[in-house]
Amino acid sequence: MFGICGNFWEFVTGLRLHKGVVEYTKDNDAAVEGYKDEAPDWTVAEVNGKPLKLYGSSDGGVVMSTAEKIEKDWDGCHIAELQLEELEDVPEIAYKLGIVPHDWKNEIAGIWADSELEEAVPFRGSGFSGASGGGAGALHLDDARSVVGNDVSLRSALFLESWELVTDLLKAGAEAHAGAQEE
Questions:
Q1: Which ranges of 26-182 would DSSP assign to H, the alpha helix?
Q2: Which residue, 94, 97, 124, is CA-closest to 112?
Q3: Percent of the chain whose pLDDT exceeds 70
Q4: From CA 112, how far away is CA 107, in angstroms rounded?
Q5: Are 21 and 54 in contact (CB under 8 A)?
Q6: Cα(first)–Cα(last) distance of the chain, in Å?
Q7: pLDDT tens for residues 30-86?
Q8: Is residue 1 very low, low, confident or very high in pLDDT (cuts 50, 70, 90)?
Q9: Which of 13, 105, 156, 172 is the least buried, fewest Cβ under 10 Å from its Cβ?
Q10: Within 13 Å and on the Cβ side, how many CA atoms surround 128?
């Protein structure tokens, strides 16, 4: 995908932290038409009947936990440095929700979490101003829905009856660029 490792952080719908508790919308209902008019029903992600939580540790890094009480803090780390608390391994729900990849122990992209916020919404990607925490697998769950930044973007669904004009323009631009390189 163009830009995912460029200067773009993008909102991810259907997932949030609510005071550190991982919540999601059933069938990604946050993406359905009418979402702006009605709040979706949020479901708590559970592991063996306990809420799954993410929080920044005062010792540094991010902790995935099912503990009853967690720290109210924010921090970030490489996904490979994610700490587990009261968990033997990353639960399947964390993979299904895209919080971490299956090979998370080898992932150098960043993960950030803020359990102090009432609601923290996820961003994926990276930005030139903070590339060390970025990457195609990076996940930031440490900003409020109202965050504003010059590197936050949204991808709209673009429907064209004919891509011919777009294709022709891209082809002409590539040919012009190649011609300039040869000179």
A1: 92-96, 164-182
A2: 124
A3: 63
A4: 14
A5: no
A6: 30
A7: 555 544 445 567 899 999 999 999 999 999 999 999 999 999 999 999 999 999 999
A8: very low
A9: 156
A10: 4
